[in-house]
Amino acid sequence: MLSQLLTSIIDDIHGDTITLRELLERCGREGMLMVCAIACLPFLIPVSIPGVSTVFGAAIVLLAFALFLDRLPWLPQRILDKGMDANKLKPVLHKGVNIVGKLERWLQSRMPALTTAAMQRFNSAVLVFGGLLLMAPLGLIPFSNTVPAVGILLLTVGMMQRDGIFVLLGYLGHMLTVVYFGVLAYLAWMGGTFVLS
Q: Where do transmembrane segments lie in this chain (predicted)?
């Protein structure tokens, strides 16, 4: 089960800090999608941990780009070795795993055309886009990290479990994120126009 595997990876990390390098070492080459899934977990609940969205968002972008190119990922040492507070992050990761556990009962092998090797590049490109949305400097705005994280998680889980329905839901999550960010930009523009007038 995916949730059990995620739990075992998180439980295997000890110490006061967590680094992306530790997560990659535990997941291995075949676990790039697994790391992307783990990187979404902190944003599924309304708890803000400063600096995490930048590190995890950048990791998703670079890992997804590696998947797009079908090669091993290259990650800057600054991102790999940036320590994050384990005492704050691990409980949030576990709560995110609980959400994944609830999704698992709906996972099946459906619409295989969306999970073929030919679609891998397109799905990876969408994942890169999702990582960029997650990195947007809007952390203080409600759901600005949660909405893209849900889209990334659904797409990632769909790719891992070969479930085309979840892949489609991931696309929908990304579209909703663009709409949400567009609404925020419009409101900011209208607010600025009102103040200046």
A: 55-74, 125-144, 164-189
